[in-house]
Amino acid sequence: MSDKMIRMTAANDTIRAFAVSAGDTVEEMRRRHGTSPVVTAALGRLLCGAAMMSMMEKDEEDLLTLQVSGDGPIGTLTVTASGGGVLKGLASHTDVEVPPKYAGKLDVGRAVGHGVLRVMRDTGAPEPYAGTVELVSGEIAEDLTYYFAQSEQTPSAVGLGVLVDRDCRVAEAGGFIVQLMPDAAEETIAALEKNIGELPQVTALLSEGAAPEDILERVLSGLSPRVLEHRDVSYRCDCSKERVIRSLLAISRADLVEMVSEARADGKPIEARCHFCNETYVFSPEELERAARITV
Ligand SMILES: [Zn+2]
Predict the structure, then answer these.
(1) Which tens digits make up the pLDDT trace of 125-178?
(2) Which residues lie closer than 8 Å to 95 by C-beta, 6 or more apart?
(3) SS3 state at 42
(4) Is residue 279 very low, low, confident or very high in pLDDT (cuts 50, 70, 90)?
(5) Distance 276 CA to ligand 1 centre (A)
(6) Gap from CA of 30 to ligand 1 centroid (Å)
(7) What is d(CA 55, CA 7) in angstroms, rounded to the nearest whole number?
(8) CATH 3.55.30.10 spans which residues of the chain?
(9) 53 in the Ramachandran plot: left (φ > 0), alpha (ψ -120 to 50) or beta?
């Protein structure tokens, strides 16, 4: 497996298309968080969607956040992606198990439940962009399709898949997004619908060794597809001791004072974990005092 994504265009620039292969990235997420198969599938699909949507950003520095909050057992899924292809994600509950939809099919929709999908774009502007839509099914791909139609008025087809092995590891993960521009011709739309209707599952194509480009060649067959860009994809957390201490400062002053005095009384350092990668950082009561500008 090598994680890559691609951006293509077709039919005289009236179609834009994205595809990703992200098996290693989703497996790295699973390894760090120890997610159960259905959580791996839900978070993995969202990671693949976010990866492709990050290619829609103008600037590689821009940060895209997708958040799915449902009333199902998973709780909230949060994924961030930079245009540089760096992904990370977390789920409020990582050990969820729900009965399969049918033999061998994880029921992501049931694990997610009813709720909302939030899309946040931080471009460095004072007010980050945010769009919210109701979840259609909680299966992620349908929810993203609905988001593009509602919030961005862009008709889209989204396919996402994560194949989890019997040993709970990620065998394949990937997906595609195809979008119609306002001036797309009727015959273009018809050809696209036919291609997508005949397309096997994304994970089946990936299992056969298909690259993101091969998937889009099939989706855009007969529509003169053209490659615009290739990018690498990886799971990486940009956390640091300073950032984790800073995130601790969000709790109340009284709680910070208590944390410092307890640590001092026990003679133990303070530990805080980055929720995105599970890395634990250790620091002294004095370091927290200094960061919070408190004296205990
Ligand atoms: Zn981290």
Answers:
(1) 888 788 999 999 999 999 999 999 999 999 999 999 999 999 999 999 999 999
(2) 34, 35, 36, 39
(3) helix
(4) confident
(5) 5
(6) 14
(7) 7
(8) 4-235
(9) alpha
Q: What is the pLDDT of residues 177-216, one digit of tens each?
A: 999 999 999 999 999 999 999 999 999 999 999 999 999 9
The residue length of the chain stands at: 296
The residues near 204 (Cβ < 8 Å, ≥ 6 apart) are none
Q: What does CATH list as the number for 241-292?
A: 3.90.1280.10
Q: Which tokens sit at 90?
A: 């977390």
CATH architecture group of domain 4-235:
3-Layer(bab) Sandwich (3.55)
Q: Tokens at residue 108, please?
A: 């992501």
As annotated, the residues of the chain forming the CATH 3.90.1280.10 domain(s) are: 241-292
- Quote the CA–CA distance of 41 and 77 in Å, as a whole number: 11
Q: How far is the CA of 236 from the centre of ligand 1 (A)?
A: 8
Return residues with CB closer than 5 A to ligand 1 (ion): 237, 239, 274, 276-277, 279
Amino acid identity of 245? I
What are the CA-CA distances from residue 16 to residues 2, 12, 62, 120, 179 (Å)? 23, 10, 20, 21, 5
Q: Which helix (H) or strand (E) holds 283?
A: strand 280-283
